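Curious: can you check?
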Amino acid sequence: MNFTSTRDKSIKTDFFHAVLNPLPSDGGMYVPLETEDLRRWLLYTDENTTFSSLAGSLTSAFVKDEFSPIICETIATKAFRFSPEIKQYDENLFLLDLAKGPTGIHRDYGISYLVSFLDTTLQLKGQKAVFLDISTGELGASLAHALRGKNNLKAVILYPRGTVRGLEESDYVWNGGNIYPIEIDGNDEACNALVREIFKDRSFIEENNITLANTLNIGRLIAQAFFYPFAFSRIKNKVHGDIVYALAAGNYSNLVSGLYAWQFALPLNGFIVPANNFLTLDVMGNPFVMDSIIPVEERLDSDPSKAFNLERLEDIFRANQLMMKHFIFPEEVSDSEIDTAAKELFMKYGYLSDRHTARAYAAAKLRGKRAEDEYSTVLIARDHPAYSADYIRQTIGEVIEIPENIKKAMTICNPGRNNLKTTKEIKSLIKEL
């Protein structure tokens, strides 16, 4: 499979180079250039197909001209020693639980796959690479876990003072690990500005194989497309009609990756998302991307410090805007409806829901009241409820037990290094790494 940009369709590259150098020269984002029909892989999966096996088969299918099936299976096997779970709550409601990774966040899947893909393929090519990212939450912990024991990758992560989490002493480069954390005296925007400035120097980025671990990197985004065929393999013999997914918007990576799964011929019938100021409803009640009023050639370059995937969503439907209304169902959801949804998930199904999942469930309930046809809903739970312990206690009145792996991921670290303040210093460090 080849990849092109959301802006300049004359750009063409393979998967490896799109992952290694994730920002196209035109300021857009990499997207699939052609649509692969993976029906023969998808339809023959069943409840005995493991997540890693499915990921290996799909990887082999869409990078068949770059790496052998054995290499693709190796990448997936190393990446996915954990798997999502599907729970059935009633005849037409399922929950896809993505909190089974090492840090209990859905990012674990994309990051683990991205790291495994690069570490394996870089070794074959005799190269090395460096991630340059910002971590103000759990990304650093997830990345550190994925990089343990890897030989061809390092990561430089910037973070505002006192916010980096989940790192161990053995993760640090100066202790033989693969993470170099840089504490910045400033807020998120100070970190963003440094990363933006470094990525502006394209020759430096390319010469030193600097890449990203956020979802601007198509290698991390494409891995999230595996969620949907996995869910389908578990429920296809339990449903007798349409399948719709309900999910919180976030930065739209899960929505876009789900649409890629649909383009790969996965049977599904749409996505319910809570509406917001970016993806909303027009006066006719149809889905509308607010950014679409600005031509892509007049927009700022994609920001390497902030992954936001709406331009990829626009790209999917650019050839046929009318089709969007048949696949994207935004719903306006109030705070009280979110809280009511969280309570209902607990009272009816015993599930302690974070606010994002409750919001998606509230949107699904609103959609269900207006839908003419019956369908099955797969509710996507992105992260472990422990990350929303305060919300659960205040809304539902339950105190959630926090697993040890999540306690570690949430623990603030103090690496004790704060001697780099400029882009010049950070560039020098990257060269050394």
Remarks:
- The chain is about 40% helix and 15% strand.
- The chain has a mean pLDDT of 93.
